Amino acid sequence: MLLPAGFLFLFYGCFTMFKIDSNLFDIGRMDTLATGDTPLHHLDPRAKLITTLVFIVAVVSFGKYEVSAMIPFFIFPLVQIAYGDLPLTYLLRKVMIVSPFAIFVGIFNPLLDREILFHFGSIGISGGWVSYLSILMRFTLTVMAALTLIALTGFNTVCLALEKLAVPKPFVVQLLFLYRYIFVLTDEAARLMRARSLRVFESKGMGFKPFASMVGHLLLRTLDRAQRIHLAMCCRGFEGHIPILRPMRFGIREVIYVAAWTMVFTLLRFYNLPMKLGLFITGLFT
User: What's the predicted TM-score (pTM) here?
Assistant: First the structure.
């Protein structure tokens, strides 16, 4: 009986480790996507960063009751995904992972704002529901734009572009280390789960005390390993700058890219194209 039980225990431990290791690979896949060979990948990262920032500013500047005017803005992330040969389903899963934050931010809007703005048939739609939908749309657009930027550029290159755009270097280095800290944290979590699976035979779950103890040990182990990694980087000449393989050159292509998308965003921001199209179609049948 011990031999089959041992095999089951080993299988459970390997399955648990596979989940953590696969999540680690999933985090690093964004850097893998950034090594693509499309024209968008070869653009200067500063051009892509500036365009994304202009897009985000245009989206968040809408009023809380504006919904239809933001629909055309989906053209930007969709075009980036299509021409950058990025996996749409993968990026949508990333959006869904962080979507609970946006869902809980505006969940009380329908209760606080009950004024009826318009009627859909016999059903009155309050301002709370409209503002809630507006929050979700702005969240989806901005997160998709940010994920697309990282998938086309790479997080290290985005940090370098921030530094080139005169963002304070300490902030850039902290941002870069925070991103790399995720990999250290995940790797140490995998080590802890491996050690636990080898020591708790026939365990049906984890209580609060073991869980709290593991979280504390995880934090201490991760800080200790991160410090060792930083010392190793300093021994190899690290001075807060990570070189990239592709040279950065802001040429005519980048100017056209930024100017064209800025014009599109400006047009979509000040002209509600879905409403004008709806009025035009309605006028044809009246």
Answer: 0.76
